[in-house]
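Researcher: Before we compare anything, I want clean individual predictions. No alignment, no superposition, just each chain on its own. First chain goes here; please echo the sequence and then give the structure tokens.
Model: Echoing the first chain and its structure:
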Amino acid sequence: MFASPIDVPTIRRLALEFPRVIGIKDSSGDLASMMRMILAVRPQRPNFSFLTGWEAVLVPMLMIGCDGGTHASSNVVPEITRRMYDLFRSGDSAAAMQWQFRILELFDAMLSPLEFPDGFRAAAELRGFHFGKGRLPQTTAQRADHASLSTILQCILADFELVERPAGGCTVRAASSPQDMVKQVVVNVMQELKKRGVL
């Protein structure tokens, strides 16, 4: 559910009257809506699966009763989304939420400024998965946005220790921790001093 929402009474009817309908994936990211669906269906059909397609709230969705998720980010960082799931299932919600906040920056960067799924495709390319081009043709501005996004994504993935940092280094990002920001400023200053021949 995302582009064409289905109302809760219809979902309940599908779940209770049609045994071959075994679950639903909701990509809206709407926690309250997911709670309403779970409350409407699970008491009568406990084996009905509820999946989230909005990884920006994977752990909160697990907390309210979702069984898991299917996400575009899992094409890029499957080990991270799996780690979040495993941490939650093992009872370590606090650690799972720490990863949730970390993946949020990556998710937001992949979601814009390009049209979905181009940002996710660009990040997957950095991991070595070559899916080919999604849309043709792209304007000069779109190609520039893609190149800029690739650098940002490479920096975020490097924070996860999944790829190398770009040769030009990484700029300080708003979502970085204060320690990361200080570290990045030092790296940027050192690189500039080397360029100028001071070091």
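Researcher: Okay. Second chain, same rules.
Model: Second chain and its structure:
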Amino acid sequence: MNVDNFGYNNISPLQSEKFRASHAVASNYAIDDIDDIDDEDGGYVLIIDPRRLDRECLSQCLSLYNPAMNIRMAESIDDWGKQQLTENPSAILLVFSGTKVSDPGTCEKISNVVEAFKRVPVIVIADSDDLGEIMKAVEVGARGYIPTSVHVNVAAQAIALARAGGVFIPASSILAAKDTISSAFSGTNCRSDIFTPREIEVAEALRRGKANKIIAYEMNLCESTVKVHIRNIMKKLHATNRTEVAFKLK
């Protein structure tokens, strides 16, 4: 089996019976109970990130937030295999940077790791907070999605929830999607009678305070094209800047 950049090649099978019984249904636990699961679980969390500085920084932040969290790091699954640990991790953090989770290659990497570690919750960490990206990660088997925009305490809670058997999806992304859907049906914000479909998407991103680079990345557009859409939106709203655009849309 090959996991490309996460490298799953010739890893010896480990005993699945060593997994903890704490992988229960998360809805049975309160937030404080989930913290207790992290503190008492003897397993370890594995961070997979090819960037050494980034994975070390993430490890340090999580350890400072929860000193009881046992963390191991590797640049790939192959690298983890060379460490010859006697147990599988209790959770795996797959960190992606500069790529969309919805890209076929990224989806394949996630699904391959999920398949290789059937009993281990896999949590994706990526830049985008778009609900479509998040749901794609869950669709291919991830037990959680952590945007890089969240605080470390949210990340720690997401890990604890996944280890307890739940699935973490950031509420901010769900609420943002709800606003977009409500706007589309109510017509109070980005109306189709004055905006093109592309302008509606850009306007909604502006309303959420996203930068041009982020809008371009999420919509797979050139930044110059995003600027053209913004100029057209400003003209139609009789706005002089993006702040005024956001205010009028709200």
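Researcher: What stands out in the second chain?
Model: Residues 4-169 form a domain with the Rossmann fold fold (CATH 3.40.50.2300). Additionally, The radius of gyration is 21 Å.
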